[in-house]
Amino acid sequence: MRADGALARVIRSAAGRDGPERCDLCAQAVPEQHRHLYAADREELLCACGACAVLFAGEGAGGGRYLLVPSRRVRLAPVDTGPLGVPVGLVFFVPRADGTVTAQGPSPAGAMRWEVEADRWARMCAACPPLATMAPEVEALLVNTVRGLDHHWIVPVDDCFRMVALVRREWRGLAGGGRVWPAVERFFTELTERS
Questions:
Q1: CA–CA separation, 184 vs 180, rounded Å?
Q2: What is the pLDDT of residue 58?
Q3: 165, 11 contact by CB (below 8 A)
Q4: Which residues have CB under 8 Å from 44's CB, separation 6+?
Q5: At what angle do helices 5-14 and 157-170 cross, to 10 degrees?
């Protein structure tokens, strides 16, 4: 996903710039907590007001061009992501509609991206069956094993990009400074399960 659309606005608003967020389809002002659509052709998140979100809630609505980002969050038992070959402890894995899987980790410049081998992801799903239930493009496995933590969640991708924006906003210097890691820990502490 690119740092356009809703993600760019999250980053700007985290820095104190911009006015109220607006629906990317009808320009209606949206509350702080609102739904997002994934624009598959542009690989970006779009803000959606309640009325526009309803239009994309059904199976096949939007003809695959826009996908409503689900709201479910599921906390998982620890999952060994080492075999996936991603060298960082704060990362999210997004299965794609074409069967590929991307891993993205936050950095001061935005999200770094890696491709995950499909057979390794398949073995991971066999070992942890809830991963096979993830909706392609719009749900992710979010992992934080930094500083001895062991958080593993299935989350909507907009949660992942809120975390990317938080890291960008709080990072200082070469190692992150004293603000970023407590902010990341708080982010994970505040995640709650929902169906």
A1: 6
A2: 76
A3: yes
A4: 1, 2, 4, 5, 6, 7, 38
A5: 40
